[in-house]
Amino acid sequence: MAFQTASGASLSVSASQPATYDSTGFAALTYTVVGEITNIGEFGKEFATVTHNPLATRGTKKGKGSYNNGTLSPALALDPDDAGQDIMETLLDSDNPGSFLVTLQDGTKYYLEGLVMSFKPSVGDIDSVVTASTSVEVTDNDIVKVAAA
């Protein structure tokens, strides 16, 4: 299959950090699925552009500087009884990062560590679902991808 849809994807969370930041360390943790996720969002390494403008050549030379693993911004329908959402709210009040697992439809897994920076309920109009927007700052530890078996 050349592509897959987001259908069937899931986000899981653990309040623990792995012993090692590799597939073995992350897989050893116990994860809880975050319920009612409607959009997991994007994540991944993005480098800052470093530039230098020598007077003699007039051109801009470019290089790669520091990187940022991004911000995960899951959207969800608020469920006060959901254990995964409870863990995210607990991590919001902690300075410690949590461990996250994004599982795609085909079984591909992405493990990452992040700080829960926001968990904000949103109450709309009479014909809308009560939702929550969240923000997870992915730490500088490598995001670990495990291909589907």
Describe the structure.
This is Phage tail protein. By secondary structure, the protein is mostly beta strands. It has one domain (about 10-45, about 75-145): Irregular (Factor Xa Inhibitor). Helices cover about 10% and strands about 40% of the residues. The protein has two helices and eleven strands. Strands 1, 2, 3, 6, 7, 8, 9, 10 and 11 form a nine-stranded antiparallel sheet that branches. It has a two-stranded antiparallel sheet with strand order 4-5. The protein is globular.
Provide keyphrases for this structure:
149 residues; mainly beta; Factor Xa Inhibitor; two-stranded antiparallel ribbon; 41% strand; Phage tail protein
Can you tell me the CATH class?
A: Few Secondary Structures
**Element string (H = helix, E = strand):** EHEEEEEEHEEEE
Strand content: 35-45%
In round numbers, the mean pLDDT is 96
3D shape: globular
What does the largest sheet look like?
9 strands, antiparallel
Helical content band: 10-25%
CATH architecture: Irregular
